[in-house]
Design goal:
The chain is mostly helical. The chain folds into two domains: 426 residues, no CATH class; 225 residues, 3-Layer(aba) Sandwich (Rossmann fold), CATH 3.40.50. The protein is 69% helix and 6% strand. The protein has a seven-stranded mixed sheet. Helix 2 crosses helix 6, helix 5 runs antiparallel to helix 6 and helix 12 packs antiparallel against helix 13.
Amino acid sequence: MINNKKSIVHYSNYSFNMLFMLISYSIAYLSNFFLDIFTSWIGGPTLLGTVNLTRKWALIIATILELGIVSTIPKFIAENRKGNFIKISVIILILDTFTCLTSGILLYFLYPFNNFLIIEFGLISASSIIFHGLFYSISRGRERIKQMFYLQFSLATIRLISFIVLIIVGFDLFLVILLSFAIIPIIAILLIIPFMNFKQLLSKNPKIMNNNKLSFTSYFKFTMPVYGSTIIAIVASQMDIIFIGFFFTPNEFGLYLVAVSITGVLSVINNAVNILLLPKISKISNDKSKVISLMNQSLKFFFLIYIPISLIILFYPDIIIHFLYGPGYSAATFISMRILIISSIFTQISSIFIEFFIALNRPTYKLYGLILLLISKFSFLSIFIPINGIYGISLAVILSELIQFTFLFILFKKLLKQKYSNNKIYFKRLDFRFWILSITIPSIIFGSGLFIPNYFFKLLIIGGGLLIIFILYLFTGKLFFLSNLFRNGIQKYSTQRTQIISSRIHYILSKLLHKIPVILDDGCGRGNITLELAKYYYIVAIEPMAKNFKNNLKLKRKNLMSNFIVSSGENLPFKNNTFDFILSQMVLEHCDSSEKYIKETSRILKNQGFLYISIPNRLFPIEPHTKLPFISYLPVKFQPYLRKLVNFQFTFPRIINLLNLFYNKVYDINLFILKNKFYYSNYFLLFYISHNFKYIKFFYPLIKFIIPSWAFLIKK
């Protein structure tokens, strides 16, 4: 796909939010997962089938009632549309919640032992899903990730805990479903809403409102295709569950639903991506490069996590099921898992396409694809179930999903050409050699374990396969891509780090220089440290990457852009003896020539001036630029993504020898930094260092070789 570095830079928040949503959906999935395990161990496949089908029917009913509206609310909020679409949505969805709950209760008391008992339970359970979906979709449109997490956590965790407690106490199954799947989660959501600052979620700024007013007519005109396709979607996606619920025994559909439950882990990954795509694409839909870049990131993120999980499930379903669910599960479950894990890739990518269709104003494309899925799945199920029984369900699923994927892919290419008609859309190949190697080599290793009966050796082979995948990710830079999910979005850390380093430099300057110095921030990055120091000193900053500081809005507001020069540290555009103080914070390792860089700092520094320089330690286990473990122990040439960031790696003797080539007085100030708490750390480490400083000082001659980074003060 297109390798557009400029557009990728804008998505650090998207990447971090995607990680946050992965955590959120993992909690929801684990809640369902532990619920399945608990019911399996307590009541076996029969109880598991009953409870799981209750959940499935709840999802079917809730989706039919709410997702047509809920899936469009985030789009309209993201586009800042005018209109009363939120008001009408709130009214409809709260009425849906009340209707589902009361209908389920009444039907149960009228027909308590009817064959439709699970549907009645499903109606009761659907009420909390609809109620959750309303507030969740509003939070999604505002991209308030924390609020989404609170709602997900309250629904999933409270349901799990209350279900286990009520079952152990010995409540009737109807009361367990009513309380744990409906009443208690709704109460939990109501209690969490005050902490969400819900008024802020609904508030709108008139200055940024879209002039294209959204009337009720236009709202429903857009919503109805989505609403209709959603009904078809949920029936089509759950048709295998519907078939198995009517034509097989509870024990048999318990066996099948175990396979569905385990392969469902992949939906966690996909939901983390999809939940953020719709509002994000709606905002940037007119920018072709950003849309393609977003698609690139989403697919890459999905596949990198998908590969190791899917390979383990594909080769060792028997080990996973026996360990998690206990005995009593036949070969039908194992075969179903293997087939479903293959079909899931088509399912997940199809859902990504569908998010793009809605965001790019083609909701009818979703409708076409889902009608095709419904027809094909119904046809295949009707053909394969009489011939293959329970095995035929999985075969029908994979064939129908493959047909839908092919159709949606054709529509997706068509949409891109229509939407961006000024240019052709070129997708760069996703490094086919890497994807082929990351599948074939681990598959060979995992496959060898199929011929070994011993479980211990099978576990060793699984560990070996995961190690190979890790090494492939490491040496191709894919692990660096995943680590950016942690690194780019942590704004709080970045702000605190800026303040601490600025305070550190300010304290040093106050002790060393009695006049107002002229300072050079050599390699200023985004310019945040420069901005802090500019409050007290005259400062000039250089940075070879102009976009780093040009995107800093604070610098523009402070009118400091004129203080910034685009230049590299090896060729400084200043006369000799210009600066009283030079700040070099984690710059030396990026230079093309470390010796030339140090020589240039010596040239422009005044006599009796000071150079402050910090450098990362190669021997520290976590590489500071990628936040990956142990890769700094490898030569830079073996790590392509690290090579783009780092040219030199230093040990303590090497950096000392380099500095002594051009300066006679080099002071190690790491103990000074630790003693005065001029470093960023968590509370526990800060407490430990401050209370044990005398021991750290005593052992520092040894500790200095393995600390994360060094700071030196050098006098000319």
